[in-house]
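User: Some background: our group keeps a shared notebook of sequences we're curious about, and every so often someone picks one and asks for a predicted structure to add to the entry. Today it's my turn. The entry only has the sequence so far, pasted here. Could you supply the structure so I can complete it?
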Amino acid sequence: MTTQETTRRTTHRISIDAPAELIFSMLRDSSHWPYLDGLTVYAERVTGDDSGHELRTSVVSNGSLSSSHCWRVFDAPGLRAEFQQLDLEPPLRLLGGAWEIRSADGLSEVTLNHYFELDDDYLAERITAIIGDYGPRELEALRASCERFAMLLQHHTAQGQSAPEPVAARSTAVRAPVVQPAVKEA
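Assistant: Of course. Here's the predicted structure to add to the notebook entry:
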């Protein structure tokens, strides 16, 4: 076992045909996560507010249910959300990352970055592979949900109806009828 302090990094990207602000609001409102990624079964904001908070989640990973919590900080004008896992167990010393959203060629480009440090360098490839599997699945589920929601918003606006309030403001009304079916199609 080695104890070299090396920070490892991964980056995954996807283009989404939805407004960047809508995508950001979907990421900020964790109540949608059980419907977005197909792995999260529970998400609850424990403390904090919309600019930064502690989040507790339960996910299915490697065939079992695991719980964790993280601290998230949001930069709404910059469309960026940073996260860092709390209460890590060895061999993980550090695990965090950031979501970044940018408008590009009529689409929104979403980048998901992770960084981590381990007490055991031999596990680095395994952790990288786990993140390499989970990150793209998260991004694809986010794409499917956001594109479906954006399409519904366009449809209602085109029919002369006013657009609903932003997702974060109406999470309970939007959650079941809009976001949940998108996962079934993903």
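Suggested note for the entry: Residues 124-158 form the longest helix (35 residues). The chain has four helices and seven strands.
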